Hints:
The chain is an alpha+beta fold and about 70 residues long. The protein is about 65% helix and about 15% strand. Strand 1 (about 35-40) and strand 2 form a beta hairpin.
Amino acid sequence: MRQWLIAIGIVLVAVGLLWPWLNRLGPERLPGDIVVQRGNFSFYFPIVTCLIVSVVLSFILWLLNR
């Protein structure tokens, strides 16, 4: 268990360091994401992006547990 937590921590640090470059690769907003802009207020909730990430991570974890 300790090794998994260390590996996950290293991956999170790597993604955090590479985030400025990774952010340029993908689309900023997918169709279905909620965006509200009124005056000087903006609200963004990436619901479709969250669903896609959840499905991909669930599939990867399912493969690892087989």
